[in-house]
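input
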Amino acid sequence: VFYNCAMIKLTFLDDSSIEFAEATPAKNFLPELAKASCVLVDSIVAVRVNNEICQLTYPIDFNAKIEPVLLASDEGAAIYRRTLCFLLAAAAHTLFPEKRLIVGHSLGHGYYYTMDSEKNITLFEIAQLKAQMKLMVEQNLEITQKRLCYEEALEELERLNMVQTRESLRYSCPPSVVLNSLAGFSNLHFAPLLDSTGKLQTFDLTEYGQGFMLRFPLSGNPKKLDENTDSPKLFSVYKRYKEWGKVIGVTCAPDLNRRIIDRSYKEFINITETMQNKCFAEAADMIHKRGGVKVVLIAGPSSSGKTTSSKKLAQQLQVIGYTPRVISLDDYYVGRDQTPKDEFGNYDYECLEALDIPLLNENLIKLFNQQEIDMPGYDFNEGKRKFTGKKLRLNENDILILEGIHGLNDKLTPLIDSSVKFKIYVSALTQLNLDDHNRIPTSDNRLIRRIARDSQFRGKSAAATISMWPNVRKGERLHIFPFQGNADLMINTALDYELAVLKVYAEPLLRCVTPMEKEYAEASRLLKFLSNFAPIPSNFVPGQSLLREFIGGSEYKY
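output
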């Protein structure tokens, strides 16, 4: 046992510090922390200790710089959501111990849940759950952690009927396991939670599909619920993939790990790729069936695979007799001298005004009238438009594919009649869960894709990619997500084996982020997330896989 005889020193944001003699929970220093940071004590939901986000109950036993994590921050909102999900699981165990609560996917500011039973959950049962959660909030129950040996943890999860969670431990096998506990219920500790239930004042449960929605507050506004969580098209895509996952027997990380361990993952990779290609074939058939379509607009959030999606769709359109011509919206940026700036004075290339809308619409009209145009280009180094002499004309069977983040916004093509436009929204909507109660966020999937791609093709470190991710997400919330309902079709670009491949690329990069960098907290969280997956060698990824856009070795030219 190591005994630290020296005093432990904590340094705050204002460079003030305190010293103490023995390991002490972070929450004991909240008054000093709040004063040094000029915030209210009640607004602090966690602490950043040497750039690692920790629960308020975390015992500090080493010298550290400490900062508050506020409820209104992105990190605070994530902690609130995780704790709310844990509260729901505890309430469900109290009321329905014989049933399995299973988390589904996100819809806006809400998560879809079902009960694993022969009958759909009833309105009365949803009301019971909501009442039980409110009661536990009023009681302000303490959320604690306990460390069990591996065998005891398996027995605990077996007792709680948490099948997937118990199976997840069979592929990591740690000597001891940390569980969160609340009102006789326990679950694996994945990331920091609130220290008590009393702070979970804002939530709702509403009937949806065959289950219900757990609605949580808006990020940055912890007292307000989003009124619009319905997205029927997105829900149908998720539902289709969830049902497909059940048919092939892979619905969670332990199912995938089992395939990897018994070496049947090659077949699973082929099935997954075939399923995705089928979706692009169906898209081509829908475009042909509609008739009169002259331009297909493809949009989606960062790292959703828009570029490869354009190429895959082009292949399928060729199969049925079209000659696709792919154009990128990046070619229509205005000069840097005309590019708007954000509130921080940085060029905002993601706003609609950064594009030359009049020139784009003029070119489209000419192309649809079978006139020839001079194709523009954009030099990002000089920040100027350049014409290289490339020309384009559409023949009778030609069809345009226009790829870019604003494709679903009608303000992009106001002069083009809707009858000749077909809009596709693409995103990495994985149907896998980590276990019974922990989902895989699409944003995590996409961030890990981007970390791998930025390192492979742009020479960026994981810290650099993580640092710019909040701005990317902000742009998505402003320019992409509000228009996803305008899509004629949504395509899932996630491949349910991909995290096992990306793990090989991302883990070494994430381990290079040091505790002296702000990005360390996110890097640590992603490393823990990836630890749930066994690795798959990249040589088994097909040459035309969408995943190749992020790891290299694609048969497509970019």
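quick obs: The CA atoms of residues 37 and 362 lie 54 Å apart.
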